[in-house]
Amino acid sequence: MKKFYIFLFIFTISIGFAQENESPKKDLKVGLVFSGGGAKGFAHIGVLKVLEEAGVRVDFIGGTSMGSMVGSLYAAGYSASEIDSIFRNVDFTKVMLDDVPRKSKPFYEKENGEKYALSLPVKKGKVGIPKALSKGQNVSNLLTEMLSHVDTITDFTQLPIPFVCVATNIETGKKEVLNSGFLPKAVQASSAFPTLLNPVEIDGKLLVDGGILDNYPVDEVLKLGPDIIIGVELGNDLSTREDLNSAVDIVNQIMSFQIYQSYDENIKNTDVHITPNMKGYSVTTFEFYDEIYKLGEVAAREHFDELVKIAEQQTVKRAPFVIKKRENKIIIKSIQIEGNEDYTRTYVKSKLGIKLNDTIAYSSFVDGINNLSATGNFTSVQYKVVDLEDGGQRVELKLKQNEISTYVKLAAHYDDLYKTAILVNITAKHALIKNDIFALDIILGDNIRYNFDYFIDNGSNYSFGFKSSYHRFSEDVMFDYVPDVARINLKYRDFTNQLFLQSVLSRKLAIGIGLEQKKITAYTNTFTSSVLSAGEDSDKFYFDKSNYFNFISYLKFDTYDKKYFQKKGVYLAADFRWYVFSSDYNDNFNSFSQLKGELGFAYTFFDKLTLQLISKAGVTIGDNNNPILDFNLGGYNENNINTFESLIGYEFAALNGGSFVKSTLKVRFEIFKNNYLMGAASVARVDDDIWNNGDVFADTKTGFGIGYGLDSFLGPIELNYTYSPDTKNNYIFFNLGYWF
Length: 740
What we know:
single chain, alpha+beta, Cytosolic phospholipase A2 catalytic domain, Ubiquitin-like (UB roll), Porin, 3 domains, 18-stranded antiparallel beta sheet, eight-stranded mixed beta sheet, 15 helices, about 20% helix
């Protein structure tokens, strides 16, 4: 009997062990944490590649800053290779700095705004500094497009992989956990690096980069319920003074104080701690994608055996997530707009360039978003494209108007005609009505000048404007009207007022008509009193001191990619001026007209070598008896007024006549970024009537030039040597800064 009980006991134990061995293993749930680090976050993508190779299924994911950007894409269903492909095709420097293509800028901005080196906001009568270098619109556009397939999911735990990110409340100094809402905006807030990107407002809270307080949010991922944490920490050792070379570096150092002090706390709950070697890289080294990606991959492979063991403890493998990509063509059937208090719905739609029920490319729609952002009237343009059940799409726009409507703008310039100049500008929007622009340039220096613009921007509808300007210069010029006088010092003054009506199509083409009052004063002190007219000032001989009343019309077509050092595009301009009345200082005025035209092309080969051909022509229609209104060619300026035109190889205003034609071929080679070696050749003819004498190309003039150019934050800096075989003369021209 005793043996029976012993046998029964052993049998029972054996069955128990058998049942235990046959029971399923516990499925290991993995949480993945990505730290912040700006450009260093490219390493996260290399880590993801190795995780997938090892077979690790990620069940939860969280991150900060760039870690939240990479993490959100993975949580939304992208694979490591797909994220790699996306990032390789993004110029993150342009994205982070909101480098808006010139084609997206309003035509008014192309004509009047590309001359300032520094722009400072004015709030409550005080001049301040911008919140950041960038509004973050390009970041928003990128995230919105990449995450559009999950934009209806507002609970981040319902994403293909549950996700969480963190940001910092800049008002309270507390951490904000972002696990619901509009995913692109949450990630943008987590990535809003101070001084680089504007803060992001969510639910009334002003948020910036989460890395300030929690650059490695292990605790937030643990709340989601993983069994094990794999963490990628990009290193936050304090930099030495030699490495603190920019404002961004200094801010990153300050952020690292908190991170560095809590380093042990950040990693104590990490089971697999992956630490790529980021020495030599910073938050802004976006140009080193390949190297940083590889460092992430190398660091993860050091833990490959651990990762394989983790994968072996996961009984269920994740099925690949198929991302439903948006069709390239969309049909927008309706638009919802919020936040346009000071701007009409028509204005917003005209900037978007959208017509309801038209089929457009999705990329064209994004261009429209950039167009709206480029107006500067909105600090945030958030959008969602919603697919409708009956086909087509609805666009939901949430706009945040720019609280700053007044700016002080500054620039500096030097050229050989106007000499040294400092520009102080005041620009104000909504000065009198909602969609107007007021801009006043005060130019101080050797030649005091001003430009005033008031423009009512009605989008694609007719817009109205008023301009007023005063220009002056003093220059020695050739003169052959008085015996024994070869050169004179010409003092030239121009005071102009214009009232005009303008229509703009697609930000490329502007057509306008208007009325103009122009006062031209031109005189010299060179002559002796013996040649002065009776009653004249004893020390001045006036060539003109007349008021002119004119009718003007113009056409401008501009697709150049840049204002200076263009690489591609076309520029076409035609300007008609009818001199109707004059106060007639010289008592010889007859009504006449002048027509000027310009056509330019630029194209770049191999991304370095640019060829640009520019042709110009001008003709006088009727009898002009005033030589001061003839066309005057010569010099190297790009800020000429009235009938003055530049010509390579000749000094300022060396050639004069009632009509002209000229062509210039420019060759530029970008030896390294923003630095150019330049060559140019010009051919021109100037005469009183070059069109009707049967030989347009008789007595042509030629000029050649070589030079060096730098595209700097102050504007173009150029040093040019020019020569004409016609005169055997050579000239050196130097200019610094934006032309104005």
